[in-house]
Structure formats: structure tokens, C-alpha cells
Write a structure and sequence with these properties.
single chain, alpha/beta, Rossmann fold, Calcium-transporting ATPase, cytoplasmic domain N, 2 domains, seven-stranded mixed sheet, six-stranded antiparallel sheet, 13 helices, 13 strands, elongated, binds adenosine-5'-diphosphate, binds magnesium ion, Cation-translocating P-type ATPase
């Protein structure tokens, strides 16, 4: 590879807000066969709005939100930001020993009580009791494309809250162009399958996997890499629960505004935070390699 072509490619990238961190990145990117996408903050804007609050015990909706937002203090997930901003006018509780379980939820202690805020499966695993009469409501919320978050206190469910995210306006056209180029798009998310399917359908991604932990995302990338010797897997993410997958991918791509970990781990950073800039990066990689040859 001629160093000049790479230098030119890299500086052309920088002019377009595409930061390329390494001499061989463009060459690898040019061979991309699969591009995996995280959902929250990548295909969507990650700007979550609280839409529904459902206590299942006799407490006001505001109290349920207070519990949830109090546990989320000090965490950085887009869901946490959505809950905390909705609770602006509420007095949050001094929750202690807050611990995040990546891709699952958050726990903390308040007045000797264990508070859990997270996805349904995780709360069930923690021994929270579930009544099937609640499921209809939860399913309805999910069918509206909302992410449902559950709140428990000492293994007793207090209620659930739904948040709505918005698709990035450029997502659909970006995926269409990738497919046109013969690159297979893939959606990997920690969220529920119903939401994953809705988003995948909306943007035109045929293959998706849901309820994935950060480790499961890594395993899936490895599996895709092993499919055949020519497989080259790029991963686009925001670093929240997907930094290990960004590292495992042949090319990790993050949008600026992603976590510091993501910006550091990624081989390519899209400074303009436009999802469609993955297409510009691919075009650049092709032009660069064409010059090399
Ligand atoms: P995605 O793959 O869409 O970016 P994540 O892997 O970040 O999603 O999270 C997966 C799921 O885990 C979320 O949909 C949510 O149910 C749960 N979760 C993760 N972090 C939190 C949190 N801070 N508070 C509540 N729930 C969380
Ligand atoms: Mg994420």
C-alpha cells in the first residue's frame, strides 16, 4: 500500500469529519462484508422521552418515576437520561451503592431496601414476582415501539415505565445504500425482540438479534467473522454496552457524542454524528484502495 494514497485518504476523511485512526483502516474498511449496528443512540437518536408510567401497587405515578430516576442517578445510559430529565421537578432519593449491570439495568439501596431498575428478564432472574395480568399492557407498549423499564423494591414489582426513542432520519437511506453495495446490515441490541423487530423492519434490516449482553454482541461479531475467510465485520455503536463489540469488529465505528470509551476504541470516528457518514467512509476507502492498486 502506498503511504501517499493513505495519507491523502486520511486527510480527505478529516476534511469531511471522518477521523481514521490508523494506516490500514481504509484498506480493511474497503473489504467490509457485514456492518453491525447498535440500536439505541446509533440507529436511533438516543434521546428517550418518557411516555407512560404504570404503577402496579398503590403508589402515585410520580413516586414510581422518583424511584426509577433516583436509582439511575450516576449512570449514563440514554434511558437513564430520559428518566432523570422527566423527573426534573421531583425530589430524588439518596440511593446508595448504585451498580450498573451492563445491558440489563441498575440497582441501588435505599433505607435498607434493594431497588432494581431494568429490563423484565433481568428482574425475573433477580427473583421479582410477575403476574401475567400485567403482560398485556407491557406487550401493548412494546408494540408501539416503546422500551419498557421495570422497577422493583425488595423483589416486589412497583411498576413499569415506557420510553420512546426516535429513529435517525438518515438511517433508512443509509441501510438501503449499504445493501445496494452488497454489504449485509445487522442489528444487535440489548432491547426486547419486539422493539428490535420494529426498528429492523422500519430501516430495512433483515437480520437482527435482541436481548444481547455486551458479551453476546462480541460472540455474534466473532461468529460473523468466522463465516468465511473473506468476512470483514464493521460495527457501528455508541460505546454504551457495545464497546467490547467495537473492539472485536475488524473496523469499529463510533459517532461523536458517543462515550469516551467508544471514541477511544473505535478505528473510525464520525465527528459530524451523521449515520450516513459511514457511506462516505466506505467511499473514501474504495477511492484510496483504487489508488493503491
Ligand atoms: P441497546 O443495544 O439498544 O443500545 P443496551 O444494551 O444499552 O441497549 O440495553 C439493553 C436493555 O437493558 C435496555 O433496553 C434496558 O431494558 C436495559 N437497561 C440497560 N441499561 C439500563 C439502565 N441504565 N436502566 C434501565 N434499564 C437499562
Ligand atoms: Mg447502546
Amino acid at each position: 500500500a502506498t503511504p501517499t494514497a493513505i495519507l491523502v485518504g486520511t486527510s480527505l476523511g478529516a476534511e469531511q469529519g471522518i477521523l481514521i485512526k490508523g494506516g490500514n483502516i481504509l484498506e480493511i474498511l474497503q473489504r467490509t462484508t457485514v456492518m453491525a449496528f447498535d440500536k439505541t443512540g446509533t440507529l436511533t437518536q438516543g434521546n428517550l422521552q418518557l411516555t407512560d408510567t404504570f404503577p402496579v401497587i398503590d403508589i402515585p405515578a410520580a413516586q414510581l418515576l422518583t424511584l426509577a430516576a433516583s436509582v439511575e442517578q450516576g449512570t449514563r445510559h440514554p434511558l437513564a437520561q430520559g428518566l432523570i430529565s422527566s423527573a426534573q421537578d421531583l425530589e430524588l432519593l439518596p440511593v446508595e451503592n448504585i451498580e450498573t449491570e451492563a445491558g440489563q439495568g441498575v440497582q441501588g439501596w435505599y433505607q435498607g431496601d434493594l431497588l432494581l431498575v431494568g429490563n423484565q428478564q433481568w428482574l425475573m432472574e433477580k427473583g421479582v414476582m410477575w403476574h401475567s395480568q400485567w403482560q398485556t399492557e407491557v406487550d401493548q407498549l412494546r408494540n408501539q415501539g416503546k422500551t419498557v423499564i421495570f422497577v422493583a423494591r425488595n423483589q416486589q414489582l412497583q411498576g413499569f415505565l415506557a420510553l420512546q426513542d426516535t429513529l435517525r432520519p438518515e438511517a433508512k437511506a443509509t441501510i438501503a445504500q449499504l445493501k445496494h453495495w452488497g454489504i449485509t446490515p445487522l442489528l444487535l441490541t440489548g432491547d426486547h425482540p419486539t422493539i428490535a423487530e420494529a426498528i429492523a423492519m422500519e430501516v430495512g434490516i433483515a437480520e437482527f438479534q435482541a436481548q444481547m449482553t455486551p458479551q453476546a454482541k462480541v460472540a455474534k461479531i466473532k461468529a460473523m467473522q468466522g463465516l468465511d475467510p473473506a468476512s470483514v465485520v464493521a460495527m457501528v455503536g455508541d460505546g454504551i454496552n457495545d464497546a467490547p463489540a467495537l473492539a472485536q469488529a475488524n473496523v469499529g465505528i463510533s459517532l461523536s457524542g458517543a462515550t469516551a470509551v467508544a471514541m477511544e476504541t473505535a478505528d473510525v470516528v464520525l465527528m459530524r454524528s451523521q449515520l450516513s457518514d459511514v457511506l462516505k467512509a466506505l467511499t473514501l476507502s474504495r477511492a484510496t484502495v483504487a489508488k493503491i492498486k
